[in-house]
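Researcher: Structure prediction, please.
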Amino acid sequence: NRADCLSILGFAREVSAYFDLPLYLPGAPIQEEPPSCSEEIAINIESPRDCPLYQTRIIKGVQPGQSPSWLRYRLLAMGQRPINNIVDITNYVLLEFGQPLHAFDQDILSGGGINISRANKGEKLTTLDGEKRELTTENLLIRDEQGPIALAGIMGGANSEINPDSNNVLLECAVFNSTLIRKSARKLNISSESSFRFERGVDQPGATKALDRCTSLIQQIAGGKVLQGIAKSEPLPWTPVKIGFR
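Model: Predicted structure follows.
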């Protein structure tokens, strides 16, 4: 139930510290090409307390399909159901780093902007589980220029999911307010691998490492061209907690 141990890396870090052993992070080689990711996506966060960090990468020309056997078997061993290579990789990195990620079909999104804001009372969104949910102002949404595309920190929307015909991927890696996500998940009676971690807090400084790892695996397994850099908004930067002792 400790946020820092809800991942393979978290356990490895504990063992490394306890036995004074070196800790090795998985590699994340990425071949980037112009244009810049930030030229295609503009990020607007309504409240920094709700979303201290939101960042994305874009991968063009991916080939969705079945994941390689090593990836499918590792997910099954962890109780996850393989879906397709793009989604499987986001789930794999979640288990590896403890950082939830979400992949949107960029071609389905409207406009070049991502907005993170509270839901309006009575607003509706059909989530990936096929349920049409009526929302309140306690729910945080990810929106494109036409409306909601995901329930932030909990579950993606059915209107923007990766499908066999998807070609371009917008990969999300964010940090959301843990109290807000917990209340939102309880109100809607949803418990997901993503919400379970956001409720307990994720590693804001390490989020970019998880984003790069996920991007690298997508490029290796599903192909595609990674646009240069990261589109990022961090209105509430992380600062170390200082505890004073006599």
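Model: Residues 207-222 form the longest helix (16 residues).
Researcher: Thanks, that helps.
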